Amino acid sequence: MNFNFGSTPKVAGGFNLPSSAVTTTTTTTPAFSLGGDSSASKLSLNLSLPPATTAGLGLQLKTTTAVAVPTSSTTGFTLAASTASTSATTSTVAPPQSVLATGTTVSSASSGASTSLNFCQLEESINKWTLELEEQEKLFMNQATQVNAWDRLLIGNGEKIVGLNNAVERVKLEQQQLDNELDFILAQQRELEECLAPLEKELDSNGVADPEREHIFQMAENMDTQLKQMSEDLKEIIEHLNETNRTQDTSDPIVQIGRILNAHMNSLQWIDQNTALIATHLEQVSKLHDVHRRENERSFHLTYD
């Protein structure tokens, strides 16, 4: 596929790049060189896309191409002003006016030098653009992956913040309940203080009874010490009597009388214990008799009433 730029009008269907007249400008400028005369000729191409006669799919391209072609060069050391013939070549593709439609595009090119864009150069450009697009796509995918990671992180942090907010709300409710309980306890404490106030006043008014109470405690302690002393004395007396009884003769009438008295004392103690037991039984029997009597009276009243 070739793009031809010439003076002959060419009717093409699809995508065309019409060109305008090619102008070549030559300027002569003094130059300082270490050799002979040098001249560089540059081909200046001004390309523009005029409005197409029929509607087509337009492409906006703006490029600048400079081509320098050296013609001759000499070697030598000269200090002279030489002229350099340069021609600036500028290829400009103006923005076309395009609409989306189907049809044929007719472009006319003026006369001038023809330049062709072969398929290899177009393929190289397309390959370069494809590589750049792939690089941009990789960069976009990397950035999209990073953005997705940040998004997941933000979502996780948002969920954590929501959970923390719920926990704070629960703590606030528990704090409010605790405050209510503390207020209730404070009210009870105030009531207790109000109840204790008259008791404290009464205790202050009854301060005269404290010395009497202390005197009674002192007397009780004295009685306790005296009883302990008496018990010790009784133990000593009993031990002494037991020792004397061991040394006594069994044939002594006093010993026999003592044994008889001990037997009588044991009998009296047994009689006393049995009497107390019989008295408790009698009380129980009397209570049962009273209970039965009351039940009989109640049943009698219920029967005849």
TrEMBL record:
One of its GO terms (cellular component) is nuclear pore central transport channel. It comes from the Eukaryota. Residues 113-205 form the Nucleoporin NSP1-like C-terminal domain. One of its GO terms (biological process) is protein import into nucleus. Its main location: nucleus. It holds the Pfam family Nsp1_C. Gene3D superfamilies: 1.20.5.170. Residues 161-188, 220-247 form a coiled coil. It is found in: Nucleus, Nuclear pore complex. One of its GO terms (molecular function) is phospholipid binding. Keywords: Coiled coil, mRNA transport, Nuclear pore complex, Nucleus, Protein transport, Translocation, Transport. InterPro entries: NSP1/NUP62, Nucleoporin_NSP1_C. Belongs to the nucleoporin NSP1/NUP62 family. This is Nuclear pore glycoprotein p62. It comes from Cryptotermes secundus. The gene is Nup62.
